[in-house]
Amino acid sequence: MLKLSKKGHSMISGLWGKKIGMTQVFHQDKVVPVTVINVNNWIVIQVKTAEKDGYNAAKLGLVRRQFHNEQFSAEWLKKPATYFSLIKEVPWDGQQAVTVGQSVACDQILELGKLVDAFGWTIGRGFAGAVKRHGFAGGRASHGSKVGRKPGASGAFRSQGKVIKGKRFPGHMGTERRMQAALEVIQCDPQANIVLVKGSMPGKAGSLVFLRKR
Fold this sequence. Notes:
By secondary structure, this protein is mainly beta. It has 3 helices and 11 strands; from the N terminus they run E-E-E-H-E-H-E-E-E-H-E-E-E-E. The strands form 3 sheets. The chain has a 6-stranded antiparallel barrel with strand order 1-2-10-9-6-11.
């Protein structure tokens, strides 16, 4: 595990994990909607320092499923693509001790009741029309209107073969990086290494998310 700081928490700025889904739990005698994030099977594979690399960071690797029950070996670092499905960096303060091969525990990085910013990628919707993509109202449904769900006029320059940049038209929707700010940490389960944060966050079940401490 990551070694503890004097206050009991490692000064790594956040955690990578995979979104499991949403549920609800009782918190302070109230039913609270929460998002469940699995932060298990992440280990430190490299420690970068300002003296050697120009900045302080901890490089984390997500162990592939077939190696979950095996002990970490230095041989894994020679073939990272074989043993790790994902490799990400997390900023580190450079003071508290972090060692290669240590697993990342949620309760040693996040604190209950504190706020985090959740980063994720929105659900991909493919090619979408202007009504679904931008919330256009569409044409009226009576008196012979033929507009329907069409986007409408393209602008005053259309006669010159031009469209103003940024005009809202049909196109690809979703798969964009978004942040949900200030979500409260409701629970950290050190046994399963699962985090529960209050509210919703971008992404579908199984998608990669990052929890950044505020």
